[in-house]
Specification:
The chain is of the alpha/beta class and 291 residues long. It is 46% helix and 14% strand. It is built from 14 helices and 8 strands. An 8-stranded parallel beta barrel has the order 1-2-3-4-5-6-7-8, surrounded by 7 helices. The N and C termini lie far apart (47 Å).
C-alpha cells in the first residue's frame, strides 16, 4: 500500500443500528402497501397510488424512527413500476440517513444467492438497503454470499430463526430441545457476530424472532443473548405481545430487540403528521416496554 493510502473501516450495521435505536427508540416501521390500506387511504390500486402511499410514509418516518422496513412483495406485484417506487423510497430514506431493512426473505444457493447479495447489499445496486431479510432453510451456509457481502459493505442481514406463524414450528423446532434447526441458526449467527462481540459492538447478522412465540425459546434452549444479534421482532403491540411475553421470549437479549410495527402505525394515515405522531408514540411505548 502506498504511503498516502489510508484504509478506512466502515461503521458496521450493528453499530449504526445501536446508535439509531438509542436516538429514536427500538422501532422499525414496516411500509406494507396492503390493498386494505389503499382503500382506507382512498388511493387507487395502481403504481401511482403505490407511490403516493410510499412517499407519504417516507416523509413521515425519515428521521423519526430507528429503521424503516419496506415489504418487497407489495412492490413486486406492480412489476417494474412498483420496483421503481421501491428504489425511490430506499434512495430517499438513504438520503435522510434513516436505516432501511428490505423485507425480501431471500434464500438460494451458489451464484443465485450471490446475485441476491449484489442486488440488495452491494454499494451501487439500485435496490440496496442497509439490511435485508433472508431465509436459511436451504442451509445456513447457503447464505454466505449475502452475509459476506453485507459485512464487507457495512450492511446487515436478518435471518429467519424462530417465527410465530403456525407452519414454522414444523421446520424450526425439528430436532427438539438443544438440537433444533432454530438452535443451529442461533449458533451460526453467534459465530458470525463473534468479531463484533470482541469489539463490544452489536453484531450485524441479526435474526427474526417472533414476539409471540411463547415458550419456544425456553423449550428449545435457545441462547439468544449470546448470539449478540439484533433481533427483528414482529408481534409486539397490536399483535398482542406484552411485557411479560417479551421477557419470557427474549430474556437477557431484550436490549437487542428491534420491534416491528406496520399496520398499527400505517392505520394513522394518510396524513403525514398523523403517521409521524403515531410512529413517535409507538417508539416511546416500545422504549418503555423493552427497558
Amino acid at each position: 500500500m502506498a504511503d498516502d493510502e489510508v484504509t478506512i473501516e466502515r461503521p458496521s450495521f450493528g453499530a449504526r443500528l445501536r446508535t439509531a435505536m438509542e436516538a429514536h427508540g427500538p422501532l422499525c416501521v414496516g411500509i406494507d402497501p396492503h390493498p386494505g390500506l389503499f382503500d382506507q387511504w382512498d388511493l387507487p390500486h395502481t403504481p401511482e397510488g403505490l407511490e403516493r402511499f410510499t412517499m407519504s410514509c417516507v416523509e413521515a418516518f425519515a428521521g423519526t424512527v430507528a429503521a424503516v422496513k419496506p415489504q418487497s412483495a407489495f412492490y413486486e406485484q406492480f412489476g417494474s413500476a412498483g420496483t421503481a417506487v421501491l428504489e425511490k423510497a430506499l434512495a430517499a430514506l438513504r438520503e435522510a440517513g434513516t436505516l432501511t431493512v428490505l423485507d425480501a426473505k431471500r434464500g438460494d444457493i451458489g451464484s443465485t444467492m450471490a446475485a441476491y447479495a449484489v442486488a440488495y447489499l452491494s454499494d451501487h445496486a439500485p435496490l440496496r438497503a442497509d439490511a435485508v431479510t433472508l431465509s436459511p432453510y436451504l442451509g445456513y451456509g447457503s447464505l454466505r454470499p449475502a452475509i459476506d457481502t453485507a459485512l464487507g459493505t457495512g450492511r446487515g442481514v436478518f435471518v429467519l430463526a424462530l417465527t410465530s406463524n403456525p407452519e414454522g414450528a414444523s421446520v424450526q423446532h425439528a430436532g427438539g430441545p438443544g438440537a433444533s434447526v432454530a438452535g443451529g441458526i442461533v449458533n451460526a449467527v453467534r459465530e458470525d457476530n463473534r468479531k463484533a462481540a470482541r469489539k463490544g459492538q452489536l453484531g450485524s447478522v441479526g435474526m427474526v424472532v417472533g414476539a409471540t412465540t411463547g415458550s419456544a425459546v425456553e423449550h428449545l434452549q435457545l441462547d439468544l443473548a449470546s448470539a449478540n444479534a439484533p433481533l427483528l421482532a414482529p408481534g409486539i403491540g397490536a399483535q398482542g405481545g406484552t411485557a411479560d411475553d417479551l421477557r419470557r421470549v427474549f430474556g437477557s437479549a431484550l436490549p437487542h430487540v428491534l420491534a416491528t410495527s406496520s399496520r398499527e402505525v400505517l392505520a394513522a394515515g394518510p396524513d403525514v403528521a398523523a403517521l409521524r405522531s403515531k410512529a413517535l408514540e409507538t417508539a416511546e411505548g416500545l422504549r418503555e416496554l423493552l427497558a
